[in-house]
Amino acid sequence: MRLAVIPGDGIGPEVVSEALKVLGEVVPNAETTSYDLGASRWHSTGELLPESVLGELAEHDAILLGAVGDPSVPSGILERGLLLRLRFELDHHVNLRPGRLYPGVQGPLADPGEIDMVVVREGTEGPYAGNGGLLRKDTEHEIATEVSLNTAFGIRRVVSDAFRRANERPRKHLTLVHKTNVLEHSGSLWSRIVEEVSLEYPEVSVAYSHVDAATIHMVTDPSRFDVIVTDNLFGDIITDLAAAVTGGIGLAASGNLDISGRNPSMFEPVHGSAPDIAGQNVADPTATVLSVSLLLDHLGEKEAARRIEASVAFDLATRDQASPGTTTAIGDRLAALVSSNAAPRPAL
Amino acid sequence: MRLAVIPGDGIGPEVVSEALKVLGEVVPNAETTSYDLGASRWHSTGELLPESVLGELAEHDAILLGAVGDPSVPSGILERGLLLRLRFELDHHVNLRPGRLYPGVQGPLADPGEIDMVVVREGTEGPYAGNGGLLRKDTEHEIATEVSLNTAFGIRRVVSDAFRRANERPRKHLTLVHKTNVLEHSGSLWSRIVEEVSLEYPEVSVAYSHVDAATIHMVTDPSRFDVIVTDNLFGDIITDLAAAVTGGIGLAASGNLDISGRNPSMFEPVHGSAPDIAGQNVADPTATVLSVSLLLDHLGEKEAARRIEASVAFDLATRDQASPGTTTAIGDRLAALVSSNAAPRPAL
Ligand SMILES: CC(C)[C@H](C(=O)O)[C@@H](O)C(=O)O
Ligand SMILES: CC(C)[C@H](C(=O)O)[C@@H](O)C(=O)O
């Protein structure tokens, strides 16, 4: 297993190092190569993602990213020049974001019920296509456009993936989240494709929710969601909300997948580089460890993936929530749990 | 005071009738004219918003709308043909949505803190402009576009309104919610205009939040928000979430304002027509009563507006939350409170 690692900025290197510690317990012979990308590289060289680095990244089985970003870099530079560029260049069309409320974790909801959902967010089109512009800049008559681009090809591969996942889950339920009553054209395309693909999955029940209503359900009745499939921007919004109601972005993992397997997929915690707490050994590496579990699952190492997830679940259920320990202490605990195989298997 | 009333479908007529009862206590001589628009009119005549009706509506001081919609009408027809058409034709550029957690109301958050925000949502442009289309429909190569249109003119008038409101509130704080790191062009225009207008309001402190992060704050730290100014689509999403965390859309009021005063503004509860509970005298008219309070405030009847809001606050603090009473009982209670002027004034 050849992994490219992008530790990044802020707490990125710290959480990645713990995640690799845990990975070492299940895949001792993984080869890792580290790539220096992010705010510090941009400051020192002006480079965001050199072609040569992109080429090297593409030769790995998967990529693990910590976090990039720093207040010293103008907003948008790293996002568009590095993070989104990776998603587009490596055709990461499925942005996979599980949202599970683990026992022992106290989220912001008074009565959350059971939460166990997976959001399949489209990753390479919609309003993220970078298509738009300014006219008559800096005048009274300035106009800015942003064009959401949606293709049958792009939507179908993501919707198919979401149905496949729903079909493998006990509840076999899929919700399309969109805003079809206003975004008539893209809404029509998404709806028709969901309807078409649903014919191949007669056992999967299908629901629809407008994105505004979905945010209400996310806080009043999140248990209703099993698999959600949605557009790039709506997915961006509701996965942050899903992370919040399941205990915060400190626990949320994500995968940027090229389902075709042509390019390596990339795994990363949903949280950012948190420069305010960097270097203090206080960041929680759990989301990055869970991202490694997603990575292993994607590479077919199902058993190893489950062992890591079960260890995390066990640790979350038993840790002192108020003071879960230092970054390295949590990493050590998780590594020990994984190696001892002590954590009970999750009920599937 | 000449009011046009659109009772609409489902519970619309029921909640509107209670709201007018309450209005009658503070403005006994209001002239109201009822307009039959919505699902039932569309079914019987195929009409959504005839030009003649639009012309008549435009001659009133304000419009009160209950709710329109029915499952028998295909999604999008009434939204685009009636609701959004009214907003566009009457230039309702400020979509005003207060989000306040009243004492006594139990929302979904375990520890909400004090919530008292106002969202100023742009109402006439952005992705709602209806600009987009389909190419190669029903083929493998189909493409759908949606164009977000953003003008300096359109943004400035909304941002100015938001600053004016922030400047009049005790905390004098304004948050721009957008997605500037991805939506480069519209994000740049919104950011520059907020910066420009902020120079006229040196006492208002300004913050920025990406829309995804804003949904997190809305459930983990909603007290941070005072006035939010945002784009049409982001506003649609976060106001539903704000309504959810302040006790549900059953309590959320809204105003669609033409700040210039050229056209009548329209006031409506955020909730829909709820056909499942229509005709049973069980719908809570509180959101519609609060919409009347917004209406009066907009027409300069500040004292009457405050009396209604104080009565609602008093009733919410003292009502049996589990069984607040029938639609008419709640209306009667609120009307009595307003007329007796018994409710204590809210601390301002
Ligand atoms: C950093 C930003 C470009 C990114 C996005 O909008 O997709 C982030 O919010 C995410 O969800 O991964
Ligand atoms: C009904 C729909 C068109 C509308 C919107 O999207 O604006 C609604 O959700 C709202 O928030 O008023």
Automatic annotation (TrEMBL), chains A, B:
PROSITE patterns: IDH_IMDH. Binds 1 Mg(2+) or Mn(2+) ion per subunit. One of its GO terms (molecular function) is NAD binding. Keywords: Amino-acid biosynthesis, Branched-chain amino acid biosynthesis, Cytoplasm, Leucine biosynthesis, Magnesium, Manganese, Metal-binding, NAD, Oxidoreductase. Its cofactor is Mg(2+); Mn(2+). It is an enzyme of class 1 (oxidoreductase). SMART domains: Iso_dh. One of its GO terms (biological process) is L-leucine biosynthetic process. Catalyzes the oxidation of 3-carboxy-2-hydroxy-4-methylpentanoate (3-isopropylmalate) to 3-carboxy-4-methyl-2-oxopentanoate. The product decarboxylates to 4-methyl-2 oxopentanoate. This is 3-isopropylmalate dehydrogenase. It comes from Prauserella isguenensis. The gene is leuB.
